[in-house]
Write a structure and sequence with these properties.
Strand order of the largest sheet: 2-3-1-4-5
Low-confidence stretches: none
CATH superfamily: P-loop containing nucleotide triphosphate hydrolases
Distance between the termini: 21 Å
Shape: globular
CATH class: Alpha Beta
Largest sheet: 5 strands, parallel
Order of helices and strands: EHEHHEHHEHHEH
Helix content: 40-55%
Number of strands: 5
């Protein structure tokens, strides 16, 4: 798989503020006249957004862990082939709110699925695509849930999985970051959004 553009992803547990930072960087790049494509997972295409609504709907409690995984992977294949790869091949910068690291953390860590099973599936669904750079916003689980509660957010099906589930997700993210320090930039999400945004810009300038 050949690409010319820069692929940047944003990761972290629910409530960590990653989407806020995603939007702040997108606005910054726009102000700097740097064209970029912004997208998210699951989602990014009409089909993938439909799958997202199924996965995250709290009413779909009967979805099993393996079904959940396959729905995420189906959404990703469509997303990568229809939207992400074409943009990268055109030399565009692509910002994506979650990607394969999220599956490794949520299904591998949270759902306790074997990395040996996940690894080939993640590679297949992403068409072998890996981010050039990933921002991981690290935050204690209780703090993240406190933020969501304060914001009046009820939580989707995954967010309602509970504190122990989300703690496993957080630790899986932290382990992944240690394994790939050249790619994953870990940023404490306990600071103000403005401070965190400046850190994101700093990391971006250093690694580009």
């Amino acid at each position: 798989m050949k690409k010319q553009g820069l692929f940047i992803t944003f990761e972290g547990i629910d409530g960590c503020g990653k989407t806020t930072q995603f939007n702040l960087l997108a606005d910054h790049l726009k102000n700097c006249k740097q064209p970029c494509l912004t997208t998210r997972e699951p989602g990014g295409t009409p089909l993938s957004e439909t799958l997202r609504s199924i996965i995250l709907n709290p009413e779909n409690r009967s979805i099993t862990d393996r079904t959940e995984l396959l729905l995420y992977l189906a959404a990703r294949v469509q997303h990568v082939e229809e939207k992400i790869l074409p943009a990268l091949k055109q030399g565009k910068m692509v910002l994506c709110d979650r990607f394969t690291d999220a599956t490794a953390a949520y299904q591998g860590g949270g759902r306790k699925m074997s990395p040996k099973i996940l690894a080939p599936l993640l590679h297949f669904a992403s068409c072998g695509l890996k981010p050039d750079m990933t921002f991981l916003f690290d935050l204690p689980v209780k703090t993240a849930y406190g933020r969501m509660k304060k914001a009046g957010k009820k939580g989707d099906r995954v967010e309602q999985a509970g504190l122990l589930f989300m703690e496993r997700v957080r630790q899986a993210y932290r382990k992944l970051a240690k394994q790939e320090p050249h790619r994953v930039c870990v940023i404490s999400a306990e600071k103000s959004p403005e401070v965190i945004h400046r850190k994101v810009i700093q990391y971006l300038k250093e690694r580009r």
